[in-house]
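Field log, afternoon session.

UNIT: design team B
ACTIVITY: writing a sequence onto a fixed backbone
BACKBONE:
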């Protein structure tokens, strides 16, 4: 039976450092093992985990082709699994990149394999990067959400991204394709907001159970004014009447003061990291807001 934090962190492959004013977690050994396992110890590091550009199933090799035969011997699936585990616990900065490339485990191309190895090269430069929680950090839960409208080339579905922070560090994050096609940017953002509010309700309940009650509405930062207006206005507009009813519970959460929506400039929206590939400067600027750079 696991009886203390040390045993739990050992089982999960997480390094925990406890100080007077903060607790830091990372997976430096696990990351180092990934780098060594895939013979990339001497690989040159890069500053972003994925380049801007789109990946599509049209990139996948034709069954029976030379590329298809060659890629059968590549441990693509295994590396995706290792990176997913890493991104789940302490490395939200690679979540989007892994999410995109995990779509091609059935038949990856050489292009996608190179992109996957680039994530490892990114990890080479920041093996010890993790998340810190400060004693003097904000005890109120805050969230950021975003959507990339029609970003998936194959079926034009949008990407939902959100992140929740507490005490100065990330505690929950997500990067996932939306289940249905959004007909506008506002709708995509509203659907992302719906997923974020669901997570907010769950986390508020969990925090109350462990003695960190949230006495104020949870602030959710979003960079789309139209989505905020849809959430606050009970009138059914022509452009929103087709949106599934299940998304409209956002309004009820606002009315009950469970959450409160705040507009934020796109350049400061942390959730951007979970919906699209960013240039180096912007990526690093947002990353430092929730990880111990």
């Amino acid at each position: 039976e696991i009886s203390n934090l040390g045993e739990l962190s050992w089982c999960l492959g997480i390094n925990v450092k406890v100080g007077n004013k903060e607790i830091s977690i990372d997976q430096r050994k696990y990351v180092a093992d990934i780098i060594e396992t895939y013979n990339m110890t001497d690989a040159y590091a890069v500053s972003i985990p994925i380049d801007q550009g789109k990946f599509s199933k049209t990139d996948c090799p034709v069954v029976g082709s030379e590329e298809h035969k060659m890629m059968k011997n590549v441990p693509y699936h295994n590396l995706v699994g290792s990176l997913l585990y890493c991104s789940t616990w302490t490395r939200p900065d690679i979540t989007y990149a892994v999410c995109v490339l995990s779509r091609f485990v059935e038949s990856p191309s050489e292009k996608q394999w190179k992109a996957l190895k680039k994530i490892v090269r990114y990890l080479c430069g920041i093996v010890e990067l993790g998340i810190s929680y400060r004693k003097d950090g904000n005890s109120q839960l805050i969230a950021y959400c975003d959507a990339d409208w029609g970003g998936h080339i194959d079926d034009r579905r949008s990407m939902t991204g959100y992140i929740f922070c507490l005490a100065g560090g990330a505690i929950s994050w997500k990067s996932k394709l939306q289940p249905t096609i959004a007909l506008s940017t506002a709708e995509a953002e509203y659907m992302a907001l719906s997923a974020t509010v669901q997570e907010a309700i769950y986390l508020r309940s969990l925090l109350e159970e462990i003695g960190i009650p949230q006495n104020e509405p949870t602030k959710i930062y979003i960079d789309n004014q139209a989505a905020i207006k849809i959430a606050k206005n009970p009138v059914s507009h022509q452009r929103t009447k087709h949106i599934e009813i299940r998304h409209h519970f956002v309004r009820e959460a606002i009315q009950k003061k469970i959450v409160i929506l705040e507009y934020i400039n796109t350049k400061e929206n942390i959730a951007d990291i979970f919906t699209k590939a960013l240039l180096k400067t912007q990526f690093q600027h947002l990353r430092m807001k929730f990880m111990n750079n």
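LOG NOTE: The mean pLDDT is 89.
NEXT ACTIVITY: expression trials, pending approval
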